[in-house]
Amino acid sequence: MVRLRVIPCLDVKDGRVVKGVRFQGLRDAGDPVERAAAYEASGADELCLLDVSATREGRASAVETVRAVRAVIGIPLTVGGGVRRLEDAAKLLDAGADKVAVNTAALERPALLAEIKERLGAQCTVLSLDAARRGDAEQPVSTLRWEVVVAGGTRRTGIDAIEWVRRAAGLGAGEILATSWDRDGTGEGYDVELLRALSEAVPVPLIASGGARTALHMETALDAGASAVLAASIFHDGVTTVDLIKRELARSGRDVRPSPIPTPSTLR
Amino acid sequence: MSPDLVLVRTGVANVASVIAAFRRLGVEPRLSDDPGEIRRAGAVVLPGVGAFAAGMARLRDAGLVAPLRARVERGEPTLAVCLGVQLLGLESEEAPGVSGLGVAPARTRRLVDAPRLPHFGWNQVEPDLTCRTVRPGEAYFAHSYRLDDAASLAAEGWSVARTREGERFVAAIERGAVLGCQFHPELSGAYGAALMERWLERAALACAGGVA
Fold first, then answer.
1. For residue A268, what pLDDT is reported?
2. Could you tell me if the ipTM is greater than 0.90?
3. What values do phi and psi take at A207, rounded to 5?
4. Are B172 and B1 in contact (CB under 8 A)?
5. N or C, which end of chain B is more exposed by having fewer CB within 10 Å?
């Protein structure tokens, strides 16, 4: 059985790792290359790198940062932020990304997903979704709805998140990176209802994002159907480590890759 | 000493991760699609190239079908990754009517019993006892198609490593200094680095005229 994955996320702005709450109030969280290497050594199954400045400033993603991170890590790297055209995606792969996450540009022109899939394969095509709850917290679970938000959560689109993801998977997205805007950076836990709804809606792997603080949060996301759990603040701030999280997940019976990973010399 | 290493330029493949992985092992691969170079190179890497039909079309257009077939048939150091290993086979369900290189007697089919596709992530690699380069461990997969676990592979001298996701299927095949991995050794952390290093050692030995 394929293992459940733990994915640290590097939000990068101007060559530095940053992290905020609900995409705002960004503070410095270190050097991306140092972070990436440390997370791989700690047992990260994959890394995600999102250029959080890219879309708003309308420029291409952090190609140089991707190149520098790729030089030191031997695990998969998903890169997103500012991917507007097929050429942007190809450029990121050339720099060392293995998957490209598309967000706003796909909303504006869904055919972009099909183009990336045709040219680079579904295994390279990730739809990044930022979703915010609609309605009030008191309403019954069965009536919950989520809306797609863009521009760092500053603009609501009116588009139903579940419908959008279903369409995106049909167009060629091979994986969904689902971030809860409500939970991002809060440590309150993933939006499990969102994950459950998405997991039932599409047959492709789902990465849970936004709100993780504990291994228990991750367990509930995995139980809701996520194939992978992404977290940023807790790893950057030293609240816990990838290794500790994976040990806890393994102890509670979740199928994760044993950690820490052996070094090449112990395998030979 | 490391052999002269050539990475087949496929135009569409994502080779940055493969190049970076070899660099970490102290080897600088050269990109080429020249048939003569592919024929003569000490060691050749055939990376994953997106779709089966496009991959074969590219190899045909560049005149690389014969040189690659010759390498594999002679057991010369060759590493095929992901789609690369499928291209070694006879044909693929992904592209009916398109012939593969035909040097590994197996067909490629869609993974049908996996709960979610693509099969993304780390999974266990279980090599046959006859495998010399592939060892047990965990490797990173990213694919929706896989080579059939055909009895004809063993009959033609291939050793097989397997994994399981819904069904049991081929994770890697090896024969002589030829290694085909459905998973991505370049993305498989320490396990992948060690595997690539063993393959390079085998390649160096073969180039020096030793037994592969």
1. 43
2. yes
3. -105, 120
4. no
5. N
Reported in sequence order, the residue ranges of chain B that DSSP labels E, i.e. its strands, are: 5-8, 30-32, 43-46, 78-81, 108-110, 119-127, 137-143, 145-147, 159-165, 167-175, 178-181
Asked if B186 is an active-site residue, the reply is yes
B188 touches chain A (CB under 8 A): yes
Instruction: Pick A267's closest partner by Cβ from B50, B116, B190.
Output: B190
Eight-class DSSP state of A254: -
What is the per-residue pLDDT for A53? 77
| Containing structural domain, residue A58 | 5-267
| Sheet containing strand B137-143, strands side by side | B30-32, B5-8, B43-46, B78-81, B178-181, B167-175, B159-165, B119-127, B137-143
Our answer to whether residue B119 is catalytic in this structure is no
Instruction: Identify the CATH homologous superfamily for domain B5-207.
Output: Class I glutamine amidotransferase (GATase) domain (3.40.50.880)
Domain ranges of chain B: 5-207
Task: Give residue B51's pLDDT.
Answer: 84
Single-letter code of the amino acid located at A110: P
A209: helix, coil or strand? strand
Q: Residue A216 belongs to a domain with what CATH number?
A: 3.20.20.70
| CB A34, CB A47: distance < 8 Å | no
* Residue type present at position A49: L
Is A2 close to B16, i.e. CB distance below 8 A?
no
Residues of chain B found within 8 Å of residue A70, distances taken between Cβ atoms = 16-17, 20
Q: What is the pLDDT of residues A136-179, one digit of tens each?
A: 767 777 788 999 999 878 899 999 999 999 999 999 999 999 99
B137 touches chain A (CB under 8 A): yes
Neighbours of A92 (CB within 10 A): 33
pLDDT at A266: 45
A→B contacts (Cβ < 8 Å), by residue, are 1-5, 40, 45-46, 67, 70-71, 74-77, 93-99, 119-124, 174-175, 203-205, 227-228, 257-258, 261-264, 267-268
Distance of alpha carbon B178 from alpha carbon B176, whole angstroms: 5
